[in-house]
Write a structure and sequence with these properties.
The complex is a heterodimer of chains A (about 150) and B (about 120). A five-stranded antiparallel sheet of chain A has the order 1-2-3-5-4, covered by helices on one side. In chain A, helix 2 runs antiparallel to helix 3 (about 115-125). Chain A contains three helices and five strands. Chain A is an alpha+beta fold. The chains are: A alpha+beta (about 150), B alpha/beta (about 120).
Chain lengths: ~150, ~120
Amino acid sequence: MSTTPTSPSWTWCYDRVIPTEDAAGRQILSDVLTQLEAEHWPQRDIFSIHLAMEEALVNAIQHGNRLDRRKQVHMRCCLGPDLIRIEIADEGAGFDPGALPDPTCPEQLHSPCGRGVMLMRAFMSRVQYNATGNRVVLEKDRSKGNP
Amino acid sequence: MAGYRRLDVTEVGEVTVVRFRDRKIVEDINIQELGSEMFHLVDTEKRDKLLLVFSTVDFLSSAALGKLITLDKKVKAQGGVLKLSNIRPEIYEVFTITKLNRLFDIKDDEAEALAAF
């Protein structure tokens, strides 16, 4: 199991508490992607982070908070030269990510939903949920080599 | 449906060729509309040979994949054929990781896809 590099030196940190609305989620996603572009992260990494954040925000807004506008989504992003860490928490009851069915098995392959967590794990370096399952930490190591 | 807001629809012989107007297929309201327009092609217009060309698409989420899966079911239920083409490498990786490349018939480009109907 891989672990987070020790003592990352963050160069950019971003905290937001947003209402349970897709538009608000889209704004923080845009802000993070703009910062990654400004710091010349590889396009492939930006795609991966975009995808993982998209899925995590949809999970928080639609599944966690169940579109309840009385609830909020808490987001913190820290960026270092070689690492990005994104924490996204909702105010829902949480879920057990380990209990999700494998969306690639033949019984699930035709299901129109249930792929978000799998895609987060595939495209990020590390994905960790809290015990309740209403907060996820996504980390991506910056790729070496060509942008 | 008088016009499509999310799709550009043309015909090449018997094949209905569908292109996407959104470069990023992510917003829930747009995905719902996109789904409705694609389903209309099959459910109402009874088009049974569909090619989805992704050359304009830079990004899509798992919610968009869900609409493609439902479209595939509808097309197959009517005995039709659905093919996909021109998927950029990062998005194709999404299909391979989820093994949806086994569910969909994906061709490299539009010409190859049209020749395969």
